[in-house]
Amino acid sequence: MKIYTKVGDKGQTSLYGGQLVAKDNVRIEAYGTIDELNANIGLLIDVLSLDTGRQTLRMVQAELFAIGANLATQPGLKAPLPLLPQETWEALENEIDQIQDKLPPLANFILPGGHREVSTCHVCRTVCRRAERRVVSLGEIETIDPGVLVFLNRLSDYLFVLSRLVAKNHDVEEIPWRAK
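User: That's the sequence. What structure does it adopt?
Assistant: Structure tokens below.
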């Protein structure tokens, strides 16, 4: 099977089910941003020098792949993979709670940066927020699994607290935002 189909040469792509849509279709934007998030999380896993979060991030990647497959499915067809169970985002909530127990309370907004690993967590967090916005846009015109939005919302929170834990583990001082 060839990797290229030449369908994209005219600005279209096919959904799971065969329907052709424009490459800038809101559905393509949604699952494309999920794919971008998944790639960035792969980068985050690669740059983490500590084992902190690797197992959770691998679970996240698997879930993001499933979300992308379901979002790539032609409307009206049964999604190829099961809907996200509540346990998926509850696992992230548990991780967030465990991490927060190890961190000092947040006293003010913090700026992304201070260390390559911390910054990579923040890049993933912001791509996650963009993916969430794209899925919201899709949800305004089509029915989507509501668990996807819950999962993405928890994931961005998880990536934020992970950035703080990584900073702490590297003895990197968080950069507070100060109004001028």
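The chain has one domain: 25-72+81-176.
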